[in-house]
Amino acid sequence: MRIFGLVQDSIVDGPGFRFSCFVQGCPHHCPGCHNPDSHDPAGGREMTVDEVAKELLKNPLTDGLTLSGGDPFAQPEDCLALAKIAHKHKLNVWAYSGWTFEYLRDQGTQAQRALLEEIDVLIDGPFILEQRTLALPWRGSRNQRVIDVPASLAAGEAVIIPDER
Ligand code: SF4
């Protein structure tokens, strides 16, 4: 898989200590994107899923895996394999995507849908510069939602996880 960067002990990409896997490649090109160098699918560096998983499992204090980018749903097969390894080791899995939950569920490829079904929490939608905020946890613009994916798939509609006060 193509990787933009790996971060141990992140506290900004979800709750607890997280291993953040920033994948390389994003088709959304949101104006104001914080990681423009991650857009080119040919950029970054090549790593095997096993190599990334080895980094993921290095720190016993890690609470979960966050798939970010780039867009993890642009490399759904490899991200699915990594998410499965995380779950096997009792780590929760969060993911960011510029596609919405409804798009991935209804119009995504089979591989994207399979990845969606392996995610615990999805932060969805593109970064919209006009809706930029620093006030909301985990996301960069107000349109983005923190979605409980298993509950949403069961309910047939996006189930939003409320912000803690
Ligand atoms: S989806 Fe994320 S990585 Fe992709 S262009 Fe938008 S903000 Fe940047």
What can you tell me about this protein's structure?
Helix content is 25%, strand content 22%. The protein has a seven-stranded mixed sheet. α2 links the parallel β4 (64-68) and β5. It is globular and about 35 Å long. The protein has helices spanning 49-56, 76-88, 101-106, 110-117, 149-155; strands at residues 2-10, 18-23, 45-46, 64-68, 92-97, 121-124, 145-148. The relative contact order is 0.16. It is an alpha/beta fold. α1 runs parallel beside α2 and α2 runs parallel beside α4 (110-117). The N and C termini lie far apart (38 Å). The mean pLDDT is 97. The protein has a single domain (2-155), classed as TIM Barrel (Alpha-Beta Barrel), CATH 3.20.20. The protein has five helices and seven strands. The structure holds iron/sulfur cluster. Iron/sulfur cluster is lined by residues 26, 28-30, 33, 35, 38, 69-71, 98, 126-127.
Keywords, separated by commas or semicolons:
alpha/beta, TIM Barrel, 7-stranded mixed beta sheet, about 25% helix, binds iron/sulfur cluster
| Strand order in the largest sheet | 3-1-2-4-5-6-7
At the first level of CATH, the class is Alpha Beta
- Averaged pLDDT: 97
Bound molecules: iron/sulfur cluster
Summary, kept brief:
The protein has 165 residues and is α/β, with parallel strands linked by helices. It has a single domain, classed as TIM Barrel, CATH 3.20.20.70. The chain is built from five helices and seven strands.
